[in-house]
């Protein structure tokens, strides 16, 4: 075995101990009268779990409030077991939380849990999303009349569209205000929400009505303004459509969602 | 040795952003945790830029994993370099440890066996990092709780040898020496006596917690008296060295932490001559990297 392989085996053995896998690491460590090899290694095993739990707790404090300490700890234990960390930066360790809560029983028996996790992860992504310049209303004035049809929109990296089947945003808001959250209820149909970060670096969110959602979806996919207008004909008359489309565009600009007008 | 001397600094923590931005308190410099700013944008970088405009900084990483047998993480190094370009730190450091193997990350600073083959492995990797970054780095001694059966040398010899062969500098954590000395039953002054003075560029100070017979490096208490004594001893041995306090948990209000830093300043003033401090300040102009 090469020297590098020996070091690799030692590290693999150590990591197995820390993560609770099969390991004979205790035989590779000195025991002292003060503490056995096992007691010494256990310090690292304990630190491993507590560090990951600290990261998860930071990222999902509303989910934590909603579930209480004991049940939240059960969620964290399962998360750590299912998702060994493959990332360098702890900021991104818990990004699969909504996936776990959506896919696994018993967590998926309370569907708002996965939605709460989705909301909290979206806030985290919005918080430190890439910075870009903000399009201002005056930028529209510079557009040539013939440029409108092929106009494409660039969105801030913080802009995220979230689909919610329950009143999860209301639950999130109540938890955020440290009030008693409402009972979870399923909406008659899925409600689409938008979350984004404005120039004051504070994230906002609001529900989207169907025409705006459809327009936004196409715009984010890179479709141009005439395609967006065509889609809006499903909702509005030919006379109303251009005004509605410009209205959406104007509000996206005023709410600081756009980074670029591409002509 | 005439080493750059930044004076007395603190670890930059989110709890203190507002106080620092509003009051611009007198602190010679801040040390940032590099990974906290390896994000695309938003408040972390906005606050970093604001504070950097008023204070010198150094960068301190926790994820380079120079001791790992995994290949060096090129994406990490790329982001680190981008952050170096943004912050323009006086220097950057990471730990003499490994954090991941087979791409599973412990997010902890795990110790290495102190033997020749480990030294060469790490020297090669630090050299690669320094070549990529185009600057010398600092490596920090750990707090540790285990000794490998196959370790054949004291930690200070291991640290010296790596620093000498890789051409890097040492970030000497005084608290970590105290913690490891207790946990592994050696005299902390032997460690300080054994370290090559020419390589020491920075000191860390911090608090710790007792867990039975062991001391855990928790950074959640004030610096204790025996660590202050060891700091004084280190100043006598090494002269003026840029010094900062790390606090990561149970974080007090900024003015309280600033008062604790004043203890370090007082000890340095009482231990070092004005000439030592003056000479070191003068050499600050020459930079290190």
Report strand % of chain B: 15-25%
Strand order of the largest sheet of chain B: 1-2-3-4-7-8-9-12
Mean pLDDT of chain B: 94
Biggest beta-sheet profile of chain B: 8 strands, parallel, barrel
| Class by alpha and beta content of chain A | alpha+beta
Overall spatial form of chain A? elongated
Read across the widest sheet of chain A, the strand sequence of neighbours is: 2-3-4
Return the CATH class of the largest domain in chain A. Alpha Beta
> What's the structural domain tally of chain B?
1
Figure out the total of helices of chain B. Answer: 10
How much helix, percentage-wise, in residues of chain A? 40-55%
What's the architecture of the largest domain in chain A in CATH terms?
Alpha-Beta Complex
Query: What about the largest sheet of chain A?
Result: 3 strands, antiparallel
H/E element order of chain A: HHHHHHEEHEEHHHE
CATH architectural category of chain B: Alpha-Beta Barrel
Radius of gyration of chain A: 25 Å
Topology:
The complex is a heterodimer of chains A (263) and B (289).
Chain A: H1 3-19, H2 37-59, H3 61-82, H4 97-103, H5 112-127, H6 137-141, E1 152-155, E2 160-166, H7 168-176, E3 186-197, E4 203-208, H8 210-220, H9 225-232, H10 240-254, E5 258-262
Antiparallel strand pairs in A: 1-5, 2-3, 3-4
Helix pairs in contact in A: 1-2, 2-3, 4-5, 5-7, 8-9, 9-10
Chain B: E1 8-11, H1 17-23, E2 29-33, H2 43-52, E3 57-60, H3 74-87, E4 92-95, E5 98-101, E6 104-110, H4 116-133, E7 138-140, H5 155-166, E8 169-173, H6 174-184, H7 188-194, E9 200-205, E10 209-211, E11 214-216, H8 225-238, E12 242-245, H9 254-271, H10 274-284
Parallel strand pairs in B: 1-2, 1-12, 2-3, 3-4, 4-7, 7-8, 8-9, 9-12
Antiparallel strand pairs in B: 5-6, 10-11
């Amino acid at each position: 075995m090469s020297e590098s392989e020996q070091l690799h085996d030692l590290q693999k053995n150590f990591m197995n101990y820390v993560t609770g896998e099969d390991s004979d690491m205790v035989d590779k460590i000195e025991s002292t009268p003060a503490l056995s090899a096992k007691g010494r290694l256990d310090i690292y095993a304990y630190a491993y779990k507590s560090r990951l739990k600290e990261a998860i707790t930071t990222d999902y404090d509303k989910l934590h409030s909603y579930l209480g300490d004991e049940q939240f700890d059960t969620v964290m234990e399962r998360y750590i077991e299912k998702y060994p960390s493959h990332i360098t930066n702890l900021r991104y360790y818990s990004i699969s939380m909504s996936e776990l809560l959506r896919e696994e029983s018993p967590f998926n028996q309370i569907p708002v849990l996965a939605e709460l996790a989705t909301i909290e992860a979206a806030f985290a992504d919005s918080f430190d999303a890439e910075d870009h310049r903000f399009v201002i209303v005056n930028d529209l004035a510079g557009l040539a009349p013939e440029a409108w049809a092929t106009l494409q929109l660039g969105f801030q990296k913080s802009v995220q569209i979230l689909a919610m089947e329950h009143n999860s945003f209301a639950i999130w808001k109540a938890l955020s205000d440290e009030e008693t959250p409402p009972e979870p209820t399923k909406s008659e149909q899925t409600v689409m929400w938008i979350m984004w970060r404005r120039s004051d670096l504070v994230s906002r969110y609001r529900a989207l009505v169907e025409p705006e959602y459809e327009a936004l979806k196409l715009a984010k996919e890179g479709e141009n303004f005439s395609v967006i207008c065509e889609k809006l004909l499903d909702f509005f008359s030919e006379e109303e459509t251009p005004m509605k489309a410009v209205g959406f565009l104007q509000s996206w600009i005023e709410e600081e969602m756009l980074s670029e007008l591409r002509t | 040795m005439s080493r750059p001397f930044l004076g007395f600094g603190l670890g930059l923590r989110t709890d203190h952003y507002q106080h620092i931005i509003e009051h611009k308190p007198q602190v010679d410099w801040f040390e940032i945790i590099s990974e906290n700013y390896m994000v695309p944008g938003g408040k972390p970088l906005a606050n970093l830029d604001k504070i950097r405009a008023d204070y010198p900084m150094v960068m301190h990483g926790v994820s380079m994993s120079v001791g790992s047998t995994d290949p060096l993480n090129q994406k990490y190094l790329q982001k680190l370099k981008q952050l170096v370009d943004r912050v323009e730190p006086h220097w950057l450091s990471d730990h003499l440890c490994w954090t991941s193997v087979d791409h599973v990350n412990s997010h902890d600073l795990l110790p290495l066996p102190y033997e020749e083959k480990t030294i060469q492995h790490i020297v090669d990797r630090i050299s690669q990092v320094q070549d990529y970054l185009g600057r010398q780095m600092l490596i920090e001694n750990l707090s540790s709780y285990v000794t490998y059966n196959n370790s054949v040398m004291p930690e200070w010899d291991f640290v010296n040898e790596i620093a000498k062969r890789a051409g890097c500098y040492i970030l000497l954590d005084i608290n970590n020496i105290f913690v490891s000395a207790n946990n592994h039953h050696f005299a902390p002054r032997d460690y300080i006596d054994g370290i090559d003075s020419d390589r020491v560029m920075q000191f860390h100070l911090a608090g710790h917690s007792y867990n039975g017979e062991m001391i855990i490096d928790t950074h959640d208490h004030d610096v204790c008296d025996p660590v202050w004594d060891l700091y004084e001893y280190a100043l006598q041995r090494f002269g003026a060295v840029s010094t900062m306090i790390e606090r990561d948990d149970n974080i007090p209000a900024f003015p309280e932490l600033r008062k604790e830093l004043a203890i370090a300043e007082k000890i340095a003033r009482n231990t070092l001559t004005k000439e030592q401090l003056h000479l070191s300040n003068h050499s600050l102009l020459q930079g290190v990297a």
